[in-house]
């Protein structure tokens, strides 16, 4: 009996193998049959979809779209058909109702549906970016002009039309904007369309930028805005191409669009609970765009973006400093920290451009207290660089360097803050950047008191005879010049200020930031001179070291450069020849240098000549001076 056991086992094994093989054949045959049936069905639907404009043909197109969004293989099969459909369609005439609102006809709705199917199908899980480029890339590149033509039509006919008339987007415009922004973001993100192909169509890049800005303006599609900006950032040509387009396009943007965008951003910063996903995308967009376009930066500043961004930073700092932070991080970890990082990054660019006026607004809104609260927190070591990124340090450094302005360190903004809780604890905290910050501000406050007590003049009229201690008022038109009396104001208006005042107002209306106050500039020169005189020996030593290390013949006069826009000034110090200084800092500075050289040659115990880079609204300002002992003369 035992001899038959191996034989029975062999029979069972053969039976199982036969059944498995039979099932495989049947399954494979059924799959082949299904594929053949599906292929025939797709071919019939494709023929009907491209054959005309009857109702049955439209149903065939919708059925194709429905199938294509469920299976990556089916989408790859029907993709050329969808593109051919778009290429065969003529751009329709947009009809408008009595209120001039463009209407979405069934024909336009079908086109939007096809474009949405394309963007959805290309993001199916089975088809990665590499697969898309190989299989779908040739068709996309062939029909790229067609895709652009329809996107341009939808955006101009609906989105731009609504914004021009009402300053906001209606339902039809939102449908068009959502569709177009998603298509553009996808094409850029998976790198199917190259920069050369975008440049080949005049206005294509500018349209993408306008779509991006409009997407930000409406809260319902703000998520797409983050995606499309990410797509731009994937390009190595961002600095050389997209920055230029953003800068050029920003000059043509309707200010109402910026106002709408700011209102929506403000709204989502006030929502509870906070929508970190939308906030992270929006502030990532803002930080990138305002760093590229000073015009857009100014538009957002005028919409009080500094105020609501500071409010958001304060809110997040409360969460970080609470015991429940780890629970909040566990729920919203990535987007929570992204919102924190990019809101600070945007605020840095906004304050850098807006200057002392914007910094004072942020300080009065509680920015320093919020940053200090986070500094004192004991969070896990692995979160240290996420909670305190480089933008955190940059913000503190920016405010520190701006303390050279009287309007920043005077009264509430900084002087009183450091003498009240919680910032009064900075000195004993031992946190180096905060201690250095407080020390610098306190030193500048003392210098201001000393110079004001010694008779510094704040009246803008150079012929003023009033005592230095008299009170001054600002010009109500430009808000920059200051006068001790109406007679001084009138005399200066006739002599010089009339033209300057017109220039200041016109520049501000054209989107340029307001320059620093004249009394600020008067005090700055005294503070800078005093601080430079205290390091005069080091500056002269740098010139000596430069002469020793240089093998070239050097002129008798060298010039020091000191960067007051950096918290650590020694990192921005260098020595220049007069030729290098004139080449790198042309314009009015050239005349100042000539005057400084003459002054240095005539004087004894003075010098060196120093070019100083100072923080200033809009862009940094450069002045040159010959060092003299500030305690004399």
From TrEMBL:
<dbReference type="InterPro" id="IPR002893">
    <property type="entry name" value="Znf_MYND"/>
</dbReference>
<dbReference type="Pfam" id="PF01753">
    <property type="entry name" value="zf-MYND"/>
</dbReference>
<protein>
    <recommendedName>
        <fullName>MYND-type domain-containing protein</fullName>
    </recommendedName>
</protein>
<dbReference type="GO" id="GO:0008270">
    <property type="term" value="F:zinc ion binding"/>
</dbReference>
<keyword id="KW-0863">Zinc-finger</keyword>
<feature type="domain" description="MYND-type">
    <location>
        <begin position="456"/>
        <end position="501"/>
    </location>
</feature>
<keyword id="KW-0862">Zinc</keyword>
<keyword id="KW-0479">Metal-binding</keyword>
């Amino acid at each position: 009996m035992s001899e038959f056991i191996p034989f029975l086992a062999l029979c069972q094994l053969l039976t199982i193998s036969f059944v498995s093989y039979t099932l495989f054949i049947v399954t494979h045959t059924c799959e082949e049959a299904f594929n053949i049936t599906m292929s025939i069905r797709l071919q019939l639907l494709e023929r009907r979809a491209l054959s005309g404009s009857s109702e049955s043909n439209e149903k065939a197109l919708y059925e194709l779209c429905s199938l294509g969004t469920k299976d990556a293989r089916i989408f790859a099969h029907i993709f050329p058909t969808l593109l051919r459909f778009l290429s065969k369609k003529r751009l329709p005439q947009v009809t408008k109702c009595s209120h001039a609102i463009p209407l979405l006809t069934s024909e336009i709705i079908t086109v939007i549906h096809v474009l949405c199917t394309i963007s959805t199908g290309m993001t199916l899980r089975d088809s990665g970016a590499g697969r898309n480029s190989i299989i779908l890339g040739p068709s996309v590149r062939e029909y790229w002009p067609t895709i652009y033509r329809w996107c341009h039509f939808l955006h101009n006919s609906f989105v731009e039309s609504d914004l021009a008339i009402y300053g906001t987007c209606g339902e039809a415009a939102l449908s068009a904007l959502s569709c177009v922004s998603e298509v553009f973001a996808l094409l850029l993100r998976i790198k199917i369309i190259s920069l050369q192909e975008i440049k080949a169509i005049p206005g294509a890049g500018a349209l993408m930028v306008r779509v991006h800005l409009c997407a930000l303006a409406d809260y319902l599609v703000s998520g797409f805005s983050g995606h499309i900006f990410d797509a731009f950032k994937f390009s190595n040509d961002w600095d050389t191409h997209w920055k230029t387009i953003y800068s050029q396009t920003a000059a043509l943007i309707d200010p109402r669009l910026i106002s709408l965008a700011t209102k929506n951003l403000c709204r989502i910063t006030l929502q509870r609970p906070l929508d970190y996903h939308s906030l992270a995308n929006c502030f990532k967009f803002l930080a990138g765009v305002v760093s590229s376009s000073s015009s857009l930066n100014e538009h957002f500043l005028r919409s009080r973006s500094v105020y609501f961004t500071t409010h958001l930073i304060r809110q997040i700092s409360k969460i970080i400093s609470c015991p429940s932070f780890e629970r909040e991080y566990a729920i919203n970890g990535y987007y929570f920290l992204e919102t924190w990082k990019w809101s600070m990054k945007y605020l840095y660019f906004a304050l850098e451009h807006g200057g002392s006026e914007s910094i004072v607004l942020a300080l009065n809104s509680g920015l320093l207290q919020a940053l200090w609260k986070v500094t004192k927190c004991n969070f896990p070591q692995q979160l240290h660089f996420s909670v305190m990124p480089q933008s955190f340090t940059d913000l503190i450094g920016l405010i520190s360097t701006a303390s050279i302005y009287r309007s920043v360190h005077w009264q509430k903004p900084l002087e009183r803050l450091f003498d009240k809780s919680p910032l009064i604890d900075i000195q004993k905290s031992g946190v180096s950047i905060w201690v250095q910050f407080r020390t610098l501000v306190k030193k500048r406050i003392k210098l201001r008191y000393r110079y004001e007590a010694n008779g510094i003049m704040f009246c803008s009229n150079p012929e003023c005879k009033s005592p230095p201690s008299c009170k001054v008022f600002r010009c109500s038109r430009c808000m920059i010049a200051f006068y001790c009396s109406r007679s001084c104001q009138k005399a200066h208006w006739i002599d010089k200020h009339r033209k300057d005042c017109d220039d200041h107002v016109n520049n501000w209306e054209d989107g340029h930031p307001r320059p620093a106050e004249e009394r600020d500039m008067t005090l700055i020169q005294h503070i800078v001179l005093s601080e430079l005189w205290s390091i005069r020996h080091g500056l002269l030593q740098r010139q000596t070291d430069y002469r020793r290390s240089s093998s070239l013949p050097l002129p008798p006069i060298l010039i020091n450069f000191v960067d007051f826009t950096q918290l650590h000034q020694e990192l921005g110090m260098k020595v220049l020849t007069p030729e290098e200084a004139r080449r790198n800092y042309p314009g009015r500075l050239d005349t100042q240098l000539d005057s400084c050289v003459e002054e240095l040659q005539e004087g004894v115990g003075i010098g060196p000549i120093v070019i100083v880079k100072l923080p200033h609204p809009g862009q940094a300002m450069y002045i040159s001076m010959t060092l003299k002992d500030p305690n004399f003369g």
